[in-house]
User: Which sequence fits this backbone?
């Protein structure tokens, strides 16, 4: 494979000197805290009193000047417990940890523009496998698109007054600097081989959110040749991640090839379901690398919970719809009893399958799998 540095790109985002960009270091967690407060609803002063902090601390947290991630673990847990007692939405409170992880990645990106071999292993993206919640929190700051896990505001939530931002979106110069950092570190991790595999995979995935005109070409350049067999879960997870990243830029062929080759046997299907469970937050254990995906004995997730989570992924508007269809098909093939375990889930799944069959948003392979799903679902209702 040619060096990734030879790929076309729009130039160096951070300038020739590679100087760090300064920003508010807790912008994502601060914005999430603001949303939590507004949905209670409460004023800054009143919530500060309930949390046992002064108003300037509360303002600093929400603005990002004082990162929530900088407080002690004990204080962070106290803040979360008190937020719940104040009536905060638990689905929002639980996201504060992922928001702190996003702040750490973004701060590292803007403060460390130039990688070195010694510093690669200390990069936040090289430390553990990120879940969807954390990855989407990072993307929130890079694109402004709200995370999938962020619940909708309930009816009656007071509207903000004045020109307040509706997301933690970074200024344009900082977004460019962050994406430039991610590209550079992905390229450096590429040179380290297996030692840099996790950082490379996760950085390339995040780079696919970049709207720069050369992003599609750069991500494609980072793609390794598709194998008929994979020698390690690291190779497998990298191929899956790049294939899904390219669908964000309208390229489906690589994903179809991955479904054909990456899930052609039980080992590939196991890895895919393990990955989905972890990505969606159903595997409670933190993972230091991608090796867990290939293990049959380390499964920590509930199959019915995964099916409920995957059902919502059968959406014709999603770029990875073919992968989602195959994953639901494989999950039910491995756990056929799920078809009769929850009648409401089965009815919802049947409706989603029929809508997909009535659309033109899936490939011929996915359509065959949908027809098999539809047949099995009809039998359960007979």
Assistant:
């Amino acid at each position: 494979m040619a060096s990734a540095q030879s790929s076309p790109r729009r130039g160096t985002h951070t300038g020739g000197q590679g100087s760090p960009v300064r920003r508010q270091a807790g912008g994502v967690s601060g914005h999430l805290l603001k949303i939590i407060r507004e949905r209670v609803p409460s004023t800054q002063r009143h919530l500060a009193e309930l949390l046992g902090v002064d108003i300037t601390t509360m303002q600093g947290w929400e603005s990002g000047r004082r990162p929530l991630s900088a407080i002690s673990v004990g204080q962070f847990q106290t803040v979360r417990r008190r937020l719940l007692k104040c009536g905060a939405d638990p689905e929002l409170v639980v996201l504060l940890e992922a928001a702190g992880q996003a702040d750490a990645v973004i701060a590292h990106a803007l403060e460390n523009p130039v990688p070195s071999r010694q510093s690669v292993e200390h990069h936040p993206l090289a430390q553990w496998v990120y879940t969807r919640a954390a990855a989407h929190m990072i993307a929130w700051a890079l694109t402004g698109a709200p995370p999938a896990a962020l619940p909708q505001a309930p009816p009656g939530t007071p509207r903000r007054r004045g020109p307040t931002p509706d997301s933690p979106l970074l200024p344009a110069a900082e977004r460019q600097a962050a994406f430039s950092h991610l590209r550079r570190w992905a390229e450096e991790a590429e040179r380290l081989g297996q030692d840099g595999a996790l950082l490379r995979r996760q950085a390339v995935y995040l780079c696919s959110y970049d709207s720069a005109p050369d992003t599609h070409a750069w991500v494609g350049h980072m793609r390794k040749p598709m194998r008929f067999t994979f020698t390690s879960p690291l190779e497998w997870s990298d191929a899956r991640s790049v294939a899904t990243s390219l669908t964000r830029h309208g390229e489906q062929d690589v994903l179809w090839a991955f479904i054909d080759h990456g899930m052609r046997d039980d080992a590939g299907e196991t890895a895919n379901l393990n990955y989905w469970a972890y990505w969606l937050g159903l595997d409670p254990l933190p993972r230091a690398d991608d090796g867990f995906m290939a293990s049959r004995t380390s499964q920590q997730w509930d199959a019915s919970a995964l099916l409920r989570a995957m059902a919502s992924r059968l959406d014709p508007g999603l770029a990875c719809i073919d992968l989602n269809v195959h994953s639901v098909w494989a999950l039910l093939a491995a756990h056929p009893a799920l078809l009769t375990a929850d009648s409401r889930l089965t009815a919802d799944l049947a409706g989603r399958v029929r809508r997909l069959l009535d659309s033109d948003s899936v490939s011929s392979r996915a359509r065959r799998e949908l027809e098999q799903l539809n047949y099995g679902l009809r039998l359960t209702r007979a």
The chain is about 55% helix and 0% strand. The two ends are 54 Å apart (CA to CA).
